[in-house]
Design brief:
The complex is a heterodimer of chains A (284) and B (152). Chain A contains eleven helices and eleven strands. Chain A is of the alpha+beta class. Chain A has two domains: 144 residues, Cytochrome c-like domain (Cytochrome Bc1 Complex, Chain D, domain 2); 86 residues, Cytochrome c-like domain (Cytochrome Bc1 Complex, Chain D, domain 2, Orthogonal Bundle). Chain A has a three-stranded mixed beta sheet with strand order 10-9-11. In chain A, helix 3 packs across helix 7. Chain A is globular. Chain A starts with a helix and ends with a strand. Chain B is mostly helical and 152 residues long. Chain B has a single domain, classed as Cytochrome Bc1 Complex, Chain D, domain 2 (Orthogonal Bundle), CATH 1.10.760.10. Chain B has six helices and no strands. In chain B, helix 2 packs across helix 6. The chains are: A alpha+beta (284), B mainly alpha (152). Chains A and B meet through helix 1 and strand 7 of A and helix 5 of B.
């Protein structure tokens, strides 16, 4: 019975495919920020479901794309400025700032965030920029870990990632057990959740290029996060967006930095291998 | 697997008690030849009410994925699914009922279309929605009646 449905179903889908309006293509455009060309299209790594990886920037309207291309207009740059202040501000019982050890972020942090998440041998789990900041604050500054999504956490994360602007995303899965977290993240990516019964792949793989209402479905890349989201008029962290997407399937959603979402971050970041870090990107 | 079965059983129990006696409960809907012949409520659907369900973002929100020339005043028609124009010519009401109730029974597991009157849903369903369907049986009948009017 199931087989018969599957065969008839396939026929129906093929019939339907010909009746579909043409998928709105992502634009053919080049992104240059402060004179630096971004890689917004690149060949996918081996084992990737897509042939070509596309930055979410290519799926946005012209006005939104321009906002990102102009650093003076990009509202996310205010967070970069705030992050620079935090970088230099002493905090915690040890009387240190980030700069006390790491000097000028433009030198010491250049290209670093493009290789995150990394393997944290102490915690025996992946570590992202937010958690790396917390680890440094607690262990080396005598300061408290940030509460999730506090403006300071978003600003400092944005500032550090911005030092990798233009650097291609490259996660080294050979570190520690990172590969098994990638495996787990892949499972999560294809697991349907909620009353609406959608997986990440339902929208960002099977229907990338289509519209849900006014939303042009991108490949769901992570290379621009934290990203300035016009809909929320604020910086949005990657785990905030993960939770928002899962919530929209009408499901309970995991905690930020939980094992589930760290695994998903490893996998989704890998799916953007070779795209430039665009932080702070501007999106719809 | 045992846990899944237990959850499914619990889910079924909740719905079985909440469905009015004259309505077919989601787990009792009979799919035959890719169609559901019998009305889920025994009452005819109301096309005007179905039209509202079709466009209401909090109800069917069908327009999120389907363009529909009958709703040109509405902004932002989605393109994930096929256009609805002429759907009433292409499908019998019994087929529309099957597709809208649980599209996976018709198009296979891979379809992205949610089951609007099905409890075969994704994991971690939001707590207050456990055991509940997206639409009621009558809303399904109303949407079936509405889509059946979309002829070219």
């Amino acid at each position: 019975m199931r087989n018969r449905y599957a065969i008839v179903g396939l026929g129906a889908l093929l019939a339907v495919a010909t009746a579909l309006p043409a998928a709105a293509e992502p634009v053919d455009d080049e992104l240059v920020i402060d004179g630096q060309a971004m890689t917004v299209r690149t060949a996918a790594p081996e084992g990737h479901p897509f042939d070509e990886l596309l930055s979410g920037w290519l799926f946005r309207e012209a006005e939104t794309r321009e906002l990102e291309a102009d650093s003076f207009q990009n509202p996310g740059m205010l967070y970069v400025d705030r992050g620079a202040d935090i970088w230099n501000a002493v905090d915690g019982t040890m009387g240190k700032s980030c700069a006390s050890c790491h000097d000028d972020a433009a030198d010491t942090m250049k290209g670093i965030a493009a290789n995150y998440p990394k393997w944290d041998a102490d915690a025996k789990r992946p570590i992202n920029i937010e958690l790396q900041i917390d680890k440094c604050r607690v262990e080396n500054m005598g300061a408290e870990a940030y509460k999730f999504d506090t403006p300071d956490q978003k600003a400092l994360t944005t500032y550090i990632k911005h030092q990798s602007l233009g650097t291609p995303v490259a996660v080294d899965l050979s570190q520690g057990d990172l590969q098994s977290w990638w495996d787990r993240g892949k499972d999560i990516y294809y697991t349907r959740t909620g009353q609406l019964n959608f997986a990440c792949a339902s929208c960002h793989e099977a229907n990338s290029g289509q519209y849900i209402r006014a939303d042009h479905l991108s490949q769901g890349q992570a290379n621009g996060f934290p990203t300035y989201r016009l809909k929320q008029a604020d910086m949005v962290s990657l785990h905030n967006r993960f939770r928002g997407c899962i919530r929209d399937t009408r499901a309970e959603f995991p905690k930020a930095f939980s094992d589930e979402l760290m695994a998903l971050e490893v996998y989704v970041t890998w799916r953007g291998t070779g795209l430039s870090v665009e932080t702070p990107a501007v999106r719809q | 697997m045992i846990r899944v079965t237990a959850i499914v059983t619990a889910v079924l129990a909740v719905t079985a008690t909440s469905a009015p006696a004259d309505e077919t409960a989601p787990q009792d809907v009979k799919f035959e030849d890719l169609a559901v012949a019998a009305s889920l409520t025994g009452k005819p659907g109301d096309p005007a009410a179905g039209r509202d369900v079709f466009k209401d973002r909090k109800l069917g929100n069908c327009l999120a994925c389907h363009t529909n020339a009958d709703m040109q005043k509405e902004l932002f028609h989605g393109t994930v699914g096929p256009a609805m124009d002429g759907a009433g010519d292409r499908w019998e009401p019994a087929q529309l009922r099957a597709i809208i109730t649980d599209a996976k029974q018709v198009f296979g597991e891979q379809t992205v279309m949610p089951g609007f009157y099905s409890l075969a849903v994704g994991k971690d369903v939001r707590e207050d929605l456990v055991g509940k369907t997206i639409l009621t049986a009558q809303q399904i009948e109303d949407v079936v009646a509405y889509v059946a009017t979309l002829k070219e």
